[in-house]
Specification:
By secondary structure, the chain is α+β, with helices and mostly antiparallel strands. Helix content is about 35%, strand content about 15%. It has six domains: about 1-60, Helix hairpin bin (Helix Hairpins); about 75-340, D-amino Acid Aminotransferase, Chain A, domain 1 (2-Layer Sandwich); about 345-425, Nucleic acid-binding proteins (OB fold (Dihydrolipoamide Acetyltransferase, E2P)); about 460-530, DNA polymerase, domain 1 (Orthogonal Bundle); about 535-615, DNA polymerase, domain 1, CATH 1.10.150.20; about 620-695, BRCT domain (Rossmann fold), CATH 3.40.50. Helix 1 (about 1-20) packs antiparallel against helix 2 (about 30-45) and helix 17 (about 535-540) packs across helix 18 (about 545-555). The two termini are about 40 Å apart. Bound molecules: 2-(butylsulfanyl)adenosine (IVH).
């Protein structure tokens, strides 16, 4: 009874999901959708035996840490040869024509999506695996993350005629709206911004935490359907015919020469029926002019698309003809990419200024005459570092080319040397800090220059305090960058520890009108003494120590004292800590000023160790162990087991690899997982055995 109910709800939710995310045509309200989802969640919670990774409830992902197993592609994922102008396209057209010895042919023109390619495998209509391109031969298994992307079907449309097993490839993208929202949030949290949606999509898909992926609003378009024994490698004609007979209705007659051939266009039309999101801007071209028209149309029209595109892909339509044309070592002869020119403007460089960041890194900025570029007026552009300036051989007064190719921050990409007048002087990178005058340094292997005066350089001091009070650090909400600047200008704070000595009288400057807000600030600062130790480790701003590393360091060393005296080797034992981070931690605690700051924070009452509560039950029994949780349990929930693993010094990971120490297996562990564990010789530990281990 409940089984039918669960299956029916899943089926309905898959359909509504398809209507909303693929067809853009929801037929029920969000509220009704949520209600159904809740109902399914409840039923699934009551009946863990019905667990299904492809259930619509699994789209929210999980915060289990996962490692990505490497998977070999059944057929290599090749790239396409690039072309940049009409002549190149005409040459490609001619090469195809010659290769087909005068036979008629069609070209499918479609958008070239600017994201990262993905290979999806479906068995009996269910998504079973998603693998990144990797090096083209093998990629990362990112199935858990991909399951959270709403426009990727977990279950194909029943009865739509999909093959028993197949692979389909496409592009994972971050739509502009998601990208802008994400960067806005990161700006508020003072995290580095993603330069473009492609980097953001790629960073997101490689996240170890699928719940993060679920929130980021990724999208996917599919553009290449493979038949398992007939893909990207030359094979016999009979398999193509069989594929057509077995799986697909005969294609509409296009031209006599390709009449009856299985076509790329036809396959994608089929895939659309099965539930995939296929590009709408796909067109069958019958002559070179059709292709050129398509390119010219989308060159401007693409700006209205919800996702980033960087060109057009042209593919010979007939699979028989594709096979005839074959491949070079790197790419198919039957397809090519035409890349759009990035939008570019030319303007005068007036001045190079330099910004100093929280870490002391110096960023050179080009200040130019305002110029219109891709819909906005640009007058500043990043020059990145000294090497770039040297490469460009930049002179003040130069006419420079500025580009905005999918990036939010425009960059200077070249100089029109012809327009340079004889009296232009070369740009010389500064040697001292523009804020405090200290001679700059350049660390080995790094492109940036740094101001080493971290305790005396104003933007560095303010930057560190701003980091300390930020939400993910000490979360002192009543303060912000403006208050920090104000207190600093008035000489009230130089250091994060000074915050705890601020008085209402000082802040309000004895002005009764300001007393209330001053009291609020003092209270908020005092309240930050309750913030747990792991966030304090993050807040003190050790270079390269982000939130996650801070948490792991806190759990391993358990007190600031122990962390401060940790050796390089001990630090390396922490997951994700390499030489760079280990050196940085040691460097931080060798600095006398930092040590004094920590002492003052401790005196002020800031948490300098894990609390008793956090310490309770903590052991090192599972130290260094990577553990996968699988199946259904009777004594504790999965989350409880995850907590138990962490409490005992182990690490919970998402998927089985050679590095996995053991699998904590409940009832009904999936057969695929079991097989993989056995193949890799990874031990299977039962619930009872595990509890015995940590007893
Ligand atoms: S077809 C053998 N079609 O561009 C043909 N690729 O350099 C396989 N891409 O790695 C690719 N949009 O990530 C194809 N409509 C499209 C595409 C597309 C974007 C990407 C893909 C591939 C790269 C080719």
């Amino acid at each position: 009874m409940y089984k039918d109910q669960i299956l029916q709800l899943r089926q309905q939710l898959h359909q509504h999901n398809h209507n909303y995310y693929v067809l853009n045509q929801p037929v029920i309200s969000d509220y009704e959708f949520d209600q159904m989802m809740h109902q399914l969640e409840e039923l699934e919670a009551q009946h863990p035996d019905m667990y299904d990774p492809n259930s619509p409830t699994q789209r929210v992902g999980s915060d289990l840490n996962q490692q990505f197993a490497q998977v070999a592609h059944r057929h290599p994922m090749l790239s396409l040869a690039n072309t940049y102008n009409e002549q190149d396209v005409a040459d490609f057209y001619q090469r195809v024509k010659d290769g087909l010895e005068g036979e008629d042919f069609e070209i499918v023109a479609e958008m070239k999506y600017d994201g990262l390619s993905i290979s999806l495998t479906y068995v009996d209509g269910r998504l079973t695996q998603a693998v990144t391109r990797g090096d083209g031969v093998k990629g990362d298994d990112v199935t858990a993350n991909v399951r959270t992307i709403r426009s990727i079907p977990l279950q194909l449309q029943e009865g739509s005629g999909y093959p028993h097993q197949f692979e389909i490839r496409g592009e994972i993208l971050m739509p502009w709206t998601s990208f802008e929202r994400l960067n806005h949030e990161r700006e508020l949290r003072e995290e580095p911004l993603f330069a473009n949606p492609r980097n953001a999509a790629s960073g997101t898909l490689k996240s170890q935490n699928s719940a993060v992926v679920a929130e980021r609003g990724l999208d996917a378009y599919l553009y290449y359907l493979l038949n398992d024994d007939d893909a990207e490698t030359p094979s016999t004609a009979s398999s193509a015919q069989q594929m057509q007979l077995d799986l697909f209705a005969p294609q509409p007659v296009a031209t006599p020469a390709t009449d009856g051939d299985v076509t790329h266009y036809g396959l994608l039309e089929e895939a659309k029926k099965w539930g995939f999101k296929i590009s709408e801007g796909m067109r069958l071209c019958h002559c070179l002019q059709d292709v050129i028209d398509f390119i010219n149309y989308w060159d401007t029209e693409r700006k209205n698309l919800p996702v980033a595109t960087d060109g057009i892909v042209l593919k010979v339509n007939s699979l028989r003809q594709q096979k005839h044309l074959g491949f070079t070592a790197k790419s198919p002869r039957w397809a090519i990419a035409y890349k759009f020119k990035a939008e570019r403007a030319c303007t005068k460089l007036n001045e190079v200024t330099y910004q100093v960041g929280r870490t002391g890194a110096i960023t050179p900025v080009a200040n130019m005459d305002p110029v219109q570029l891709a819909g906005t007026v640009v007058k500043r552009a990043s020059l990145h570092n000294a090497d770039i300036i040297a490469q460009l051989d930049l002179h003040l007064g130069d006419m420079v080319y500025v580009e905005k190719g999918g990036e939010i921050i425009p960059k200077v990409v070249g100089v029109d040397v012809e327009q340079r007048s004889a009296d232009c002087i070369p740009v010389r990178f500064i040697e001292t800090c523009p804020e405090c005058g200290t001679p700059l340094v350049r660390y080995e292997g790094e492109a940036a220059h740094y101001c080493p005066n971290d305790s005396g350089c104003p933007p560095q001091i303010k930057g560190r305090i701003e980091h300390y009070i930020s939400r993910k650090a000490m979360n002192i909400e009543s303060l912000g960058p403006e208050t920090v600047d104000d207190y600093y200008q008035r000489g009230l704070i130089h250091n994060i520890a000074d915050l705890y000595q601020l008085t209402v009288a000082q802040i309000s400057n004895n002005n009764p009108n300001r007393a209330v807000s001053a009291r609020k600030a003092v209270d908020a600062i005092r309240k930050s003494c309750e913030v747990p130790f792991e966030r304090v480790v993050y807040a003190i701003g050790i270079r390269f120590v982000g939130e996650t590393t801070a948490k792991l360091l806190a759990r391993k060393f358990r007190s600031m004292e122990a962390l401060a005296s940790a050796t390089h080797d001990q630090l390396l034992e922490v997951d994700g800590v390499g030489d760079v981070i280990a050196d940085s931690v040691i460097h931080y605690f060798t600095d006398a000023t930092n040590r004094a700051t920590i002492d003052r924070l401790a005196q002020a009452g800031v948490q300098m160790a894990l609390s008793d509560e956090q310490m309770q039950g903590m052991t090192t029994k599972l130290e260094g162990k990577s553990i996968v949780i699988s199946g259904v349990f009777s004594y504790h929930s999965r989350d409880e087991y995850k907590a138990l693993i962490e409490q005992n010094g182990g690490k919970n990971v998402g998927s089985i690899s050679a590095k996995t120490s053991f699998v904590l297996a409940g009832a009904n562990m999936g057969p695929a997982k079991l097989e993989k564990a056995q193949k890799l010789g990874v031990a299977i530990v039962s619930e009872d055995e595990f509890l015995q281990m940590i007893k």
